Amino acid sequence: MSPIATYYWPGQTHFGFGAAQRVGDEAKALGVQQRVFLVTDSGIVAAGLLQTVLDALDMAGLETAVFDQTPPNPNTTAVDAAAAQFRDSGAELVIGLGGGSPIDAAKAVRILAGGPPDAKIAEYALMLGDKVRPLPTVTQMPPMIAIPTTAGTGAEVTPWGLITDPARKLKMGVGGPATIPTVALIDPAMTLPLPPHLTAATGMDALTHLIEAYVSTNTAPIALDALIVDGLGRIGRFLRLAVAQPAHQQAREEVMLASMLGGIAISSRWLGAAHSLAHQLSGIADVHHGLACALMLPAQMQFSLPGALERYANVAQALEPCPVVGSVREEAERGITAVRQLMRDTNLPLRLRDVGVTEEMIPILADNAVIDLNWTTNPRAITRDQMETLYRETF
Ligand SMILES: [Fe+2]
After folding, report:
1. How far apart are CA 258 and CA 255, in angstroms?
2. pLDDT string in tens for the chain (395-residue length)
3. Domain boundaries, the chain
4. Strand locations in 56-122, DSSP E?
5. How far away, in angstroms, is 170 Cα from ligand 1 center?
6. Which of 103, 138, 193, 333 could be 155's S-S partner, Cβ–Cβ 3.0 to 4.6 Å?
7. What's the 104 CA to ligand 1 centre distance in angstroms?
8. Integer angstrom CA distances of residue 70 from 67, 89, 124, 358
9. Ligand 1 mean position to 103 CA, how many Å?
């Protein structure tokens, strides 16, 4: 008999070109009568995407209060300020519009909006458990609509957000099952303005989610295997095309679908050591999250191979199908080669020294990575010193 499997499915999800235009109707369906609060960043404003959404809300007769100061890696200061603005605005719903950062920030605002007015987001860090502040319940929080503008994080369908705590120089997780966005409007048209280097980096985040969820020790939610393999195939077939031809609508749609599937997969299966290692690169050297994942993925796969050999062989087949000629081990190694080749083909750097990381940072990176508990579902257990080795190998 199998153990009880727990699936965290997304909220109501609308996927396809034009889905973002539904924002006004969806807000009203969630009970909004007058005003919404929208969290975004300056890049989204500059790309003209904010105006698209504001127009749709206006058409529905709704007012919008905008917070457009989300930093590239959202931090506690920005989130606490946004939550204060939410309270002053009298809004009835939170919208997260952007890549993972504004959506994560919007999740954090939603948590603060459901708690006591004097609460700070740092008090909800998952590493603290419920010791300082218990997470508000769904009915205490305002509803949330997520509109992603990148195809990578899958944050529109996941329960958690990542917020940088500058005081502790690390990324902390916030959230839980109650903070899965109420509605996700996943519109590939929103990714059309994304430049190639960000298409590549965010696509590698989606790839990392799919691989880490597939080899995770938390395999009980087994029905996700088919979705993950499907997502890997879409990345293998279409990420290069989305990077090379940003206006290619099918490529954008396929990569965005893969990103959504990655988000659904990690919500129930969780992640692995690549994310523990990557989060610190963002916390200390401000490396883009997707790029940080891509950088650490090959070394982490090589290390983890013995823990999930057959599954890694399946990853290779899903990503780059071809007749099997070698051993399971060789097939699994082929998956690592495929990841490295995908990084080269999409013009991503492969070494930490190329993204502003210095050798002196490595011991601190390892100290922090081992307390980032994503590695606990890694297919092979890992120590702090082994993490330091993976950083040095990638340096
Ligand atoms: Fe990620």
Report:
1. 5
2. 888 999 999 999 999 999 999 999 999 999 999 999 999 999 999 999 999 999 999 999 999 999 999 998 899 999 999 999 999 999 999 999 999 999 999 999 999 999 999 999 999 998 777 778 999 999 999 999 999 999 999 999 999 999 988 887 777 899 999 999 999 999 999 999 999 999 999 999 999 999 999 999 998 999 999 999 999 999 999 999 999 999 999 999 999 999 999 999 999 999 999 999 999 998 889 899 999 999 999 999 999 999 999 999 999 999 999 999 899 999 999 999 999 999 999 999 999 999 999 999 999 999 999 988 899 999 999 999 999 999 999 99
3. 12-190, 194-394
4. 63-67, 94-98
5. 15
6. 103
7. 12
8. 8, 17, 19, 27
9. 13
**Joined tokens for residue 166:** 């500058």
Q: What distance in angstroms lies between residue 293's CA and the mean position of ligand 1's atoms?
A: 7
Question: Distance between CA atoms of 157 and 150, rounded to whole angstroms?
Answer: 13
The CA 208 to ligand 1 mean position distance, Å, reads 7
As its CATH architecture, domain 194-394 has: Up-down Bundle (1.20)
Query: How close is the Cα of 209 to the center of ligand 1, in Å?
Result: 6
Architecture of domain 12-190: 3-Layer(aba) Sandwich (3.40)
Measured in angstroms, how far is the CA atom of residue 128 from the centroid of ligand 1? 21
Scan for tokens 């958690």, then name that residue.
160
CA of 137 to the centre of ligand 1 (A): 25
The radius of gyration computed from the CA coordinates of the chain, to the nearest angstrom, equals 20
